[in-house]
Amino acid sequence: MFARIMAVVMAAILITTAGLSVIWWISMRNQQIDARLDYLISEADDIAYMAANLNNTYWFRTDTTARTMLNRKAEKVNNEFGAYIAVVDRTGNMMDNIRTAYSEDPDFVNSLSGEDISEALGKILSGETIRIRSTEEEAPTFTVGVPFIQDGYVEGAVFIQTRAQRIESGLSEMLGTIFLVAGSVLLLSGVALFLSIRSAMKPLNQLTQAAESIAGGDFDAQVDDNRGGRELREVSRAFNTMARKLQGLEESRREFVSNVSHEFRSPITSIRGFVQGMADGVIPPEEHPKYLQLVADESTRLSELVGDLLELSRLERDDVKPEYTVFDINEMLRRAIIRRMEDLERKKIDVSCSPERDPCPVRADSGRIEQVVINLLDNAIKFTEEGGKIILSSAVRDDVAEVTVWDNGASIPPEDRDKIFDRFFTADRAHTAGKGTGLGLSICRRIMEMHGQTLRLLDTPEGAAFRFTLAYAPESGASLTEPENHA
């Protein structure tokens, strides 16, 4: 990944540098050409000035000093540019360096076009300063020309033409400088990019290594969430949060497996011990009925544990949805009391149902809610001493029905209040063992979560009270369905 990023970014830098280098070279080339043409025009202006300030009409024949000065200036221009130079007055008299130019570059002189020269001189004699590059690709030329003026009138013209390569010479040397600068830019950019990307990739490499560690089962992996840009820091924090949650889930899984193993081991060990004792004759035959009943009780306990585990597993599936109906929760509470009347009478428990509003229509899955009611009532019966009291009540608060199951049995210790809904946790309020699988309240809370409602333990001065909420449905009160009997 690092190499791919480097390659892509370096390619972008290379293309950008190449483009800028081309633009720079073209700009420098045009500037140099303009500068040389300006210089050539300034030389032509000097020649025109000399010609314009001669007083003799036949200056090109009689004024030896003037001609010497003009020849020297023309020689200077010719030496620098290998140019053809012509000075023409309005009467048609002309002085040029045709012989010198021919001796130095006959091909150039032979390429001169009399028609082009006449056209250019016409423009110059009309008072126009010209600078032209010919479009002839085989032998392109640059032409400049200026008029010389005396007393406000154009008296003549200075015409200079040279090969384009003499004006454009030296540009190739600039390429070396451009290549050197571009190469330096690329080198420095590459080094800076390498260091920058390597620094930026360190947190990503940490994330990759941490992800591999988590994939290998090591959920203690964490990354530094204070490095890199804002987005990378947010990703690192999210990764650490995920790792902590996975660690918590793994600890819960291990604890769950340990608890399941323990809960299964206890009845299985008892069953195996009793059966082995009877088979080996350690337990006398007259004691067999007693121990067979114990085996039956442990088998029932084991069956209940398996049933609760399967039920909890079904409830935790994402595709499990409540089957909503509208029913009277008060009627469900009364039926639950009737179903557990034998246990209540055996322990001589005073039980009552005290609804605040009757009927109290709610919208929920009646079968699942009945599980919650029966489970909470069973817990209350288990932890209430003989002659105790249990109250099932309902009330409506802000369009929410609240159902409370209270008993005056032993209170739940403060250190256990945050754990009672955990799997396999049993709050031993009565200080006696073997009072359930520890899955009942977990199942109840999951059912309420499926409904988008709550189940919580209330703070009470005496005993214990659990309260769950349901959606109140007063508009459906005239069409209540009977709560299903799931006995």
Report, as a whole number of angstroms, the end-to-end distance. 63 Å
On the 0-100 scale, what is the average pLDDT?
79
CATH homologous superfamily descriptor of the largest domain: PAS domain
Provide the CATH topology of the largest domain: Beta-Lactamase
Largest sheet: 7 strands, mixed
Give the strand content: 15-25%
Q: Give the SSE string.
A: HHHEEHHHEEEHHHHEHHEEHEEHEE
- How many helices in DSSP terms? 14
Radius of gyration: 53 Å
Low-confidence stretches: 55-60, 429-435
The total tally of domains equals 3
CATH class type of the largest domain: Alpha Beta
Backbone structural class: alpha+beta
The CATH architecture term of the largest domain is: 2-Layer Sandwich
Task: Provide a descriptive summary of the structure in words.
There is one protein chain. Residues 55-60 and 429-435 have low confidence and may be disordered. This protein has 14 helices and twelve strands. Helix content is 56%, strand content 16%. The two termini are 63 Å apart. Helix 1 runs antiparallel to helix 8 and helix 10 runs parallel beside helix 14. It has helices at 2-52, 59-62, 64-81, 98-104, 106-110, 114-125, 164-168, 171-215, 230-280, 288-315, 329-339, 341-346, 366-382, 440-450; strands spanning 84-89, 94-96, 130-133, 141-150, 153-163, 325-328, 350-355, 361-364, 389-397, 400-407, 455-457, 464-472. A hairpin with a 4-residue loop joins strand 1 (84-89) and strand 2. It is of the alpha+beta class and 487 residues long. It has three domains: 2-172, Beta-Lactamase; 219-319, Signal transduction histidine kinase, dimerisation/phosphotransfer (DHp) domain (Helix Hairpins), CATH 1.10.287; 325-479, Histidine kinase-like ATPase, C-terminal domain (Heat Shock Protein 90), CATH 3.30.565.10. The strands form two sheets. Strands 6, 7, 8, 9, 10, 11 and 12 form a seven-stranded mixed beta sheet that branches. The relative contact order is 0.07.
